[in-house]
Fold this sequence. Notes:
This protein has 142 residues and is of the alpha+beta class. It has one domain. A 5-stranded mixed sheet has the order 2-3-1-4-5. The longest helix has 13 residues.
Amino acid sequence: MAEDFFDKTHLMEVLLDIESNVNLQPLADAFGADIHVHYSKLVKGVYETRVGLSEFHEFPDSTVTALCVAVCQLPESARKLWDCASTRTFDIGIEAAIGSTYSFALAPQTLKTLAVLEGKVVITVYGPENSRKRLRARETPL
Length: 142
C-alpha cells in the first residue's frame, strides 16, 4: 500500500514575500525562468510581490539558496527595488502530519547570504487537518 501523502511531515514550499512603498512589478518581471511569480500587486497602499521556485526542491536550504541566487542575479535596476523594499521574507512552509517529525538546517553560507540580502526567515507550519482541507479544495471540480 502506498504511503499516504499526509502521513509524513514534509517541506511544502518556500515563498519569498517582498513588500515596498514603490511598485515592485519591475522586480517581479526581472526574475528569470527559474522563478514563478505568484503575484505582484498593490494591497492597502503597500506593493506586495510573492515568488517561488518554478521547480520543487526537496530541502529548505537548497530552495532558499536558489532564491538567494535569483536575487543576486537581478539586474541593477531590479536590485535597487529589492534593496529599498521594507520586507524581504523567505517563508518556509512545512506540512505537518500527526506522529511525524521533520527537522532541517540552513547552512552557515545560506545564513550569511540571507544576512547580506537583509532577508528574514519565517517558518510556517500547516496542521494536518488544514492540509487535508486544502487538498480537497484543490481536487473539487469547478
